[in-house]
Amino acid sequence: MNNRNKTQSDTDVKQFNKPRKFGLSAIGISTAVALGGVAIATQQAQALSALAIVNGITSSGGVGVSKDILYGDEHLQDLDIYYPKPLAKAMKSQQVISDTYPMVVFVHGGSWESGNKEEYAFVGQSLAQAGYITAVINYRKAPEHVYPDYVEDAAKAIAWSYDNAKNYYADPERFAVVGHSAGAFNAVAAVSNEDFLAPYGIKPSDISAVVGIAGPYSYDFRKFSSASAFDENATPDEVMPDRQIKGSQPPYLLLTAENDKIVYDTNTVKMTQALKDKGVTVERGQIKGASHATSIGAMAPPLRWVNDVRAQVVSYLDRTVK
């Protein structure tokens, strides 16, 4: 682990701080622009959102989308649903649709303070191109909303998607949850502790698989600026997912980014061991050459060459869900 075993506060989430958001700012702007074949002056490129550039160069690939669907009554409790090309084509032409598709719920990162479903459209498009109906969700943000609000929103969105899957030609028996960074925390926390899904009549074992990418599952948030996303009296033992596992669980894939300087791999090591201690099936993998940002940015079809995160996620989903 690259000599990162000093103390937990020094290693697990060394730079889990507000000034360094979990967006895609670390993705090379010039690379993204070159891929789009567009010449943009340096000063213009620097002013553009890296996420906007990724979405700008991501072809929809013929997938369809339903926007701003409410899964709750409060602000930011909504989601977008992306459809694979054959389904989108059939829906558009009003054909009789007898096939069903596997479904994924994706939870974005952003230090629990930033990010939205529009910025992660490229993930919905990418997974839909792989044959998955994909719900990309919003959730309420800190500091107005602290733990457990955003995890409760993830659970609510998961349950809504599961309950309504058939209305969108999805099969609830083939249903996965995927999250990145703070969104991986939300996704893993919402499923691994059955108390979050219980109010909606859903059990963790109803989920076919969970994928967490570069998630901060086990660190002392009190030592970092991300403390603003948690109650001031909360402790890691009370909120970290690796200490809150409850109920029969689905299989998990937990990925780390080889060059992640924001969320260190000790988080995944500890979460993996905690799940295994409960008898849960867990696979742990590394995204070679990936930074924290590119561990999700390379989900965009034009950036697949950057690393193999998409290949690892889709391969796992194909084995466990499809």
Topology at a glance:
Layout: H1 8-11, H2 29-36, H3 42-47, H4 50-57, E1 64-70, E2 78-83, H5 85-92, E3 101-107, H6 121-129, E4 133-137, H7 149-164, E5 170-180, H8 182-192, H9 194-197, E6 209-213, H10 236-239, E7 252-257, H11 266-277, E8 282-287, H12 294-297, H13 309-320
Parallel strand pairs: 3-4, 3-5, 5-6, 6-7, 7-8
Antiparallel strand pairs: 1-2, 2-4
Helix pairs in contact: 2-4, 7-8
Question: Describe it for me?
Answer:
This protein has about 325 residues and is an alpha/beta fold. Helices cover about 35% and strands about 15% of the residues. Strands 1-2-4-3-5-6-7-8 form an eight-stranded mixed β-sheet, with helices on both faces. Helix 6 links the parallel strand 3 and strand 4. It is globular, with a radius of gyration of 19 Å. The relative contact order is 0.16. The N terminus is likely disordered.
Major sheet details: 8 strands, mixed
Counted beta strands:
8
Mean pLDDT: 87
Q: Reading side by side through the largest sheet, how are the strands ordered?
A: 1-2-4-3-5-6-7-8
Q: What sequence of helices (H) and strands (E) makes up the elements? A: HHHHEEHEHEHEHHEHEHEHH
Number of helices: 13
Helix content: 25-40%
Strand fraction equals 15-25%
* Rg estimate, integer Å: 19 Å
The multimeric state of the shown protein is: single chain
The coarse silhouette is: globular
- Which ranges are low-confidence, i.e. pLDDT below 50, for 5 or more consecutive residues? 1-11, 17-48
End-to-end Cα distance? 34 Å
Helix-strand makeup class: alpha/beta
